[in-house]
Amino acid sequence: MTARFKLPHLLASAACAVGIAGGALAAPPQVITMDGHYLEYARQRVAAGEAILKPAHAKLIEDAGALLKVTPEAVTYKKIMPPSGDKHDYMSLAPYWWPDPTKPDGLPYIQKDGQFNPSSKNGDTDSVRMQIMCLGTQNLSLAYYFTGDTKYAKKAADFIRTWFLDPQTRMNPNLRYGQAVMGRVDGRGIGLIDTRNLWMVIDAVALLEPASVLTPAEITELKKWFKDFNTWMLTSDTGIEEFNAHNNHGTFYDMQVANYALFAGDMKTAKQAVERGVDLRIASQISLEGKQYAELERTTPFHYTAFNLEAMSNLARYGEQVKVDVWKKRDKTRGIKNGINYLAKFAAQPETWPYPELEGKPETELALGVMLRAERAYGGGGYANVVAQLPVSSFNTQEIIAMSKLLGTPPPTTLNSIDRLIWPVMPKK
């Protein structure tokens, strides 16, 4: 681990210069995916009025205010009944599969890679509902962290209770019916990509701790839910199917296993997942040039290249907690740094991207988070310069669009994305 991670001296200096809560340096939250030191630094810089963070902070508070008026989501609210007959079972439809226009009933569905079927992204099933719950919980918990206003913490706790704990609305800890394809299969292993943002809920628990809005018994029950879900991922046929994926799906699988194990206190399983991620995912998916061929074959290759690097970056973050330095492993060839550097060459100049894109130009939004994390990990590699050059464009993932429509607020842009608050660029020592 590099000196970039030795932050207490830097933060103490920042606290003296900025002053927050009377000048006292607050203990960083014990988050797992985010970095508590970076969050505390960002909170101090926001309090000091730092211009580059103002748009992101303003957007955070705007959306949090709208979320206060929203009814928490639950899997039991969907319109389509899962094959089990139990609405507590999560269900989603494969986004790129459409009714066959040559068949009277449209069955079985046919694939159109990169083209979203609108019926997979509405309230009939749980896909968008899941992401609204994750994004909303993260937004509210961060709003509490940055303002200290418990109204946000209470609402975040309501989101968590409704989805995971309330017997009337809780989700069963399995994904048997994720990304079903009508007329073909009730559920698929790749449906596990739907739960990729549950880390936001886990980190929210740490952010909410000072507000005491979740009881110790509720937190224990939540940890059990994630332990049970992890067991299902590791032992079920559906989970094993996703384990065998050789693209971003496999990476997100190991990322999730490591995250849930860390939350449940199972360090052995977490370390196994991280080590597997280094060898089975990163080394096998990133070429000597830093290319990810499995992602470059997609109709939106820039998006999927950054998407997979996001999962790899999370694995590297978990590696810090189980003493496996993913950031430096194979940092010259076939390592995560290889992949990041390849993306960095095109992130600020997407017109130079050499691969065809479905919409004619790359979707560069996800590059922001990847570059900010790389700056944290490596510092001085030019990643902060890439961040500064990223163009303003709509952060238009389907889930962000859905939540923005729900809240009646405009989607954020890359320059005021919440990533800037989570991974602020720190000055060099």
Low-confidence stretches: 1-24
Number of strands: 4
Rg, rounded, reads: 21 Å
The strands making up the biggest β-sheet line up spatially as: 1-4
Mean pLDDT figure: 90
Q: What is the N-to-C order of secondary-structure elements (H for helix, E for strand)? A: HHHEEEHHEHHHHHHHHHHHH
Q: What this model shows, in words?
A:
- The protein has 429 residues and is mostly helical.
- The protein has a domain at 267-391.
- The protein contains 17 helices and 4 strands.
- It has a two-stranded parallel sheet with strand order 1-4. The protein has a two-stranded antiparallel sheet with strand order 2-3.
- Helix 7 (216-235) packs antiparallel against helix 9 and helix 12 runs parallel beside helix 14.
- The two termini are 16 Å apart.
- The model is unreliable at 1-24 (pLDDT under 50).
Which descriptors would you attach to this protein?
429 residues; mainly alpha; two-stranded parallel ribbon; two-stranded antiparallel sheet; 17 helices; disordered N terminus
Tell me the layout of helices and strands.
Blueprint: H1 8-18, H2 36-47, H3 54-67, E1 91-93, E2 97-98, E3 110-111, H4 127-147, H5 150-165, E4 177-180, H6 199-208, H7 216-235, H8 237-243, H9 248-264, H10 267-285, H11 293-296, H12 301-321, H13 336-347, H14 367-378, H15 383-389, H16 398-407, H17 419-422
Parallel strand pairs: 1-4
Antiparallel strand pairs: 2-3
